[in-house]
Design brief:
The protein is 41% helix and 20% strand. The protein has 126 residues and is α/β, with parallel strands linked by helices. The longest helix is centred in the N-terminal third of the chain and has 31 residues, at 2-32.
């Protein structure tokens, strides 16, 4: 009976270890880092010319995982010139700042996902 108890305890500890390491890693990648966000951009990107644009704020991990290619604009109005070309760009904005985007910009953006306090959107081409 002691061997069975030892095996059961070992299995329980193994499950607790796996859950304790995998769950925080996923939270880190989606909420605290932009690794998962950039992975989604890469899978959705149709052309290399499509840009990744952060509005008002970009975390350091965005710069790192985008290999320095992320663009930072100061506000929603500075985003409008990027809508004047043939690219379907990716826009990242904090959820609480979505309302600061001009109405015509919001109308052209399709939500792709939430990553912590940030929202990933994609420009819908006309």
């Amino acid at each position: 009976m002691r061997i069975g108890t030892g095996i059961a305890a070992g299995l329980v500890l193994s499950v607790v270890f796996v859950v304790g390491t995998v769950v925080p890693q996923r939270r880190f990648e989606t909420e605290l880092s932009h690794k998962a966000l950039l992975r989604m951009v890469e899978t959705q990107r149709a052309h290399a010319d499509e840009r990744l644009i952060y509005v008002a704020q970009a975390p350091i991990s965005a710069e790192f995982y985008s290999k320095g290619q992320a663009i930072l604009v100061r506000d929603g109005a500075a985003l409008l010139p990027y809508f004047d070309d043939a690219n379907a760009d990716f826009i990242v904005v904090r959820g609480r700042d979505l309302d600061m985007l001009p109405a015509d910009a919001r109308a052209r953006l399709v939500p792709l996902g939430a990553f912590g306090k940030y929202r990933l959107l994609r420009e819908a081409l006309r």
